[in-house]
Every structure is written in C-alpha cells, then in structure tokens.
Amino acid sequence: MEVTISDVQKTAGMTYRGAGVDIDAGDALIGRISDDAKRTRRSGADGSLGGFGALFDLKAAGFSDPILVAATDGVGTKL
User: Fold this and answer.
1) How far apart are CA 71 and CA 74, in angstroms?
2) φ and ψ of 25, to 5 deg
3) pLDDT score of 26 more than 70
4) Terminal CA-to-CA distance of the chain, rounded, Å?
5) Sign of torsion over alpha carbons 59, 62, 66, 72
6) Max intra-chain CA distance, the chain
7) Cross-sheet strand order for the sheet of 67-71
8) Could you tell me which residues come within 8 angstroms of residue 49 by beta carbon, excluding any fewer than 6 positions away?
C-alpha cells in the first residue's frame, strides 16, 4: 500500500497553514519580485523563479567548461 503526503495530512490534520506557511503570501511575494528577479538573469543561467534548482553554465559566463549546479529543497522558513 502506497501512502502519500496527502494521506498523512488527512489523517494527522496537518496543513501548511497550521505549520505557519502562508502560500498566498508566498505567491504574492513572487508577484512583487518577479520583474526584479528577471532583470538579474544573465547568460548561462537556466532556472526559473520559484524553482527548487537551477543550472548555471560557467562557459557562457566566460569560464572554460564547468557547469555549476545549485539547489534548495524543503527550505521553508529557513532561507
């Protein structure tokens, strides 16, 4: 039997809001900073606002051949 996060939330009564996460406020923040964030985009960057990871091609930024990979996941209020 496969148990999903949704199943656990239903049985335990857990919600994002109950944990202090305001998804609407997060969406509103994305809306406010979206244009500013897009202006910082540069050659070699491959990722979107709100994603948990991105690629940065250092070659496109003038470096020899490496690719830098950075990611965040499940950071909640820690970031």
Assistant:
1) 10
2) -65, -40
3) yes
4) 35
5) negative
6) 53
7) 45-46, 53-57, 67-71
8) 30, 33, 34, 37, 38
